[in-house]
Amino acid sequence: MTTYVWTVTRLWTLPQVDGETDVVVNAAYNVVGTDGEYTASLDNTQQFTYTGGAFTPFDQLTQDQVIGWIQAALGENGIISVEACIQGQIDSKKNPPVSPAQQPLPWAAQ
After folding, report:
1. Above 80 in pLDDT, residue 110?
2. pLDDT tens digits, residue range 42-87?
3. What region, left, alpha or beta, does residue 36 occupy, with left being phi > 0 and alpha being psi -120 to 50 degrees?
4. Structural domain boundaries in the chain
5. Which of 72, 78, 82, 103 has the fewest Cβ atoms surrounding its Cβ within 10 A?
6. Left (φ > 0), alpha (ψ -120 to 50) or beta: where does 58 sit?
7. String of DSSP letters for the chain
């Protein structure tokens, strides 16, 4: 069974939006999947648009909160897609695909 760990690696802010300062508009994240001795990861970014309402000052943000924003923006299907991509990498490490081998042309070998 694969476990997934989501980590925020960078944040980008605008100095002011709708009277709020240091508004997060982009987050870079990394997701690492681990299945026994096999690991794989994916890096990506997610953009946000602040439209007013609840606001957490930048210095009070937590990683869990920003991961929640990322996952909400991705939606259930997006999360499934990210984790499926990582699972595919792990599956390829567990059972490497067989690459085709080049063969001499049978009529040219005579």
Report:
1. no
2. 999 999 999 888 999 999 999 999 999 999 999 999 999 999 999 9
3. left
4. 3-94
5. 103
6. alpha
7. --EEEEEEEEEEEEEEETTEEEEEEEEEEEEEEEETTEEEEEEEEEE----SS----GGG--HHHHHHHHHHHHHHHHHHHHHHHHHHHHHHHHSPPPPP-----TTT--
The residues, any chain, with a CB within 8 Å of residue 30's CB and separated by 6 or more, are: 6, 7, 9, 41, 42, 43
Q: How does 66-95 read in b/e, with b if 16+ C-beta sit within 10 Å?
A: bbeebbeebeeeebeebbeebeebbeeeee
Mean pLDDT of the chain: 95
Look up tokens 């997610």; give the residue.
46
Question: Above 90 in pLDDT, residue 108?
Answer: no
- Name the amino acid, one letter, at 67: I
